[in-house]
Specification:
The chain is an alpha+beta fold. The protein contains eight helices and 17 strands.
Length: about 350
């Protein structure tokens, strides 16, 4: 980069030729997401000083306690994406149904945005890393009003952009528009995201596996065997691997993206369809990992090719370094064939 500071907005404008569809509008939409994440970051950083920690007192559609900061992050994203005129409809993990946009000119808005406003919310009160995940699609509906549920239930292969923000020791925004993956670190002294991780490529192999082993007794046998494989001593294959699990999907994914590794949330007896939400969490990071040279499947098929049948549909997930995911799939497939 020759010492030159490149901000997120500069980078988006410079790379507009990558967008084959309404480049100026998509650029503004990405910029709006960046602005909302700065506001969320500000509140995350002072969460211990103000009354936004702890439970909000309601249960979201997933049956989970809603945290106050979840509500704040959700409101900020909705406000930012409603005001620009580029978004016709939204979907949020915190909302049961689609979020209609009623601003003037919405009938001409060309994009759909789906998001998890605050991933890893169980970590809010203990100062561990949390994040925001987002996904952008082109509108497929038409008519005099805003978008529809069908706009939000497109296959992951139809995404035009996706990414995440991780709020940790530093705040980093990582995104793709289908032409590689780039990361930007927030410089609080100037209030701008600056290019810090250009052209991210995840290693083909890694030494980290991320899974909640507390659920081990409920794992499919193939997953248990893969975990045993990860723990075996084999110097030729650099095993055993390191077990790292934060419990925040964004945080575990970000580490594995940069260092190489695999994240697994398999089907279990308690959650036979998996736990992660296809449209809000899985598809965005699957799109991103593929652009970085990695792989994402449900153990059997590419997750981006799974057609969502509901806004809060869940799927199992094997995601990360290509060779590690393929090895885990092989263990999973052998046991599946015996059933």
């Amino acid at each position: 980069m020759n010492g030159k500071i490149i901000t997120l907005n500069q980078f988006i404008i410079d790379r507009q030729n990558e967008f084959s569809y309404a480049s100026g509008e998509l650029s503004r939409l990405l910029s709006d997401i960046g602005t909302a994440s700065k506001i969320i970051n500000r509140e995350v950083n002072k969460a211990g000083l103000v009354n936004i920690l702890g439970d909000y007192g309601t249960i979201n559609v997933q049956g989970e306690e809603v945290k106050k900061l979840d509500i704040y992050a959700n409101e900020q994203l909705i406000a930012a994406l409603s005001s620009g005129g580029e978004c016709c409809v939204m979907g949020s993990e915190e909302n049961d149904d689609i979020i209609e946009v009623n601003t003037e000119g919405v009938e001409n808005a060309k994009y759909v945005v789906l998001f998890d406003p605050l991933d890893g919310s169980s970590n809010i009160d203990v100062n561990a890393s949390i994040g925001t995940i987002f996904s952008i699609y082109r509108r497929i509906s038409d008519g005099p009003k805003g978008g529809t549920v069908a706009d939000c239930l497109q296959d992951g292969t139809e995404q035009v952009a996706a990414g995440y923000v991780i709020y940790g020791s530093s705040t980093i925004l990582v995104y793709t528009t289908g032409h590689g993956v780039n990361g930007f670190t927030l410089d609080p002294s100037i209030g701008e995201f600056c290019l810090s991780h250009p052209d991210i490529q995840t290693p083909k192999d890694g030494k980290i596996y991320s899974i909640n082993e507390g659920n081990y007794a409920d794992f499919p046998e193939g997953v248990k065997q893969y975990i045993s494989y990860c723990k075996e001593k084999n110097s030729a294959e650099a095993r055993p691997y390191s077990s790292r699990y934060i419990g925040s999907f964004v945080a575990d994914f970000h580490r594995n993206l940069l260092k190489g590794g695999i994240f697994i949330y398999p089907p279990t007896a308690k959650t036979p369809n998996g736990k992660l939400r296809l449209v809000y969490e899985v598809n965005p990071l699957a799109f991103l990992i593929e652009q970085a040279g990695g792989r994402a499947t449900d153990g059997k098929q590419r997750v981006l090719e799974i057609s969502p049948n509901a806004l809060h549909m869940r799927v199992p997930l094997f995601i990360g370094s290509e060779n590690m995911v393929k090895k885990a799939e092989a263990f999973f497939a052998v046991e599946a064939e015996k059933v």
